[in-house]
Specification:
This protein has 6 helices and 2 strands. The protein is mainly α. The protein has one domain: Winged helix-like DNA-binding domain superfamily/Winged helix DNA-binding domain (Arc Repressor Mutant, subunit A, Orthogonal Bundle), CATH 1.10.10. It has a two-stranded antiparallel sheet with strand order 1-2. The protein is elongated and about 60 Å long. The relative contact order is 0.15. Keywords: DNA-binding.
Length: 150
């Protein structure tokens, strides 16, 4: 299983909105520049995220986009599934109806079920707030440098 740029870039865009949560709308241009993404492509992703109720748009000269919920309430799974669809290593364990004549006797299906379960677990336990905390910790570590004692 491999995520497309939709999912990866969508998470990066939502991270930018989360880092500025509470500070007002953020322009697409600003997100695109900070993350090194195409503004045109970002427009397409944000439209899908807005339709799913994960972001809100604000019109006007100082308009832009905001998270529709607090960063702690939006999981990475919410974003990935909105942009990518069901996250499953194979069709037979996806969220969609899939008929396989060997479902009752398939020995390997348990592998795919367990893998999907673990993927869902990771995506659903990590929030945008977690990403922001991680980024701030990394920035702090970088700013602090190393301390040596003799």
């Amino acid at each position: 299983m491999k995520l497309s740029t939709k999912g990866r870039y969508g998470v990066r865009a939502m991270f930018e909105l989360a880092m500025r949560y509470g500070a007002g709308p953020v322009s697409l241009r600003s997100i695109a520049e900070r993350q090194g993404l195409s503004e045109h492509y970002l427009e397409q992703l944000i439209a899908v995220l807005r339709k799913a109720g994960l972001v809100k748009s604000v019109r006007g000269a100082y308009g832009g986009y905001l998270l529709a919920q607090e960063p702690k309430d939006i999981t990475i799974g919410d974003i990935i599934r909105t942009l990518e669809g069901p996250v499953a290593p194979v069709e037979c364990v996806g969220d969609e109806e899939y008929e396989c004549e060997k479902v009752e006797v398939c020995v390997t299906r348990i592998i795919w079920e367990k893998l999907k379960e673990k993927i869902d677990e990771v995506l659903d336990e990590m929030t945008l707030e977690d990403l922001c905390q991680y980024a701030l910790e990394k920035k702090h570590e970088k700013d602090e440098g190393f301390m040596y004692h003799i």
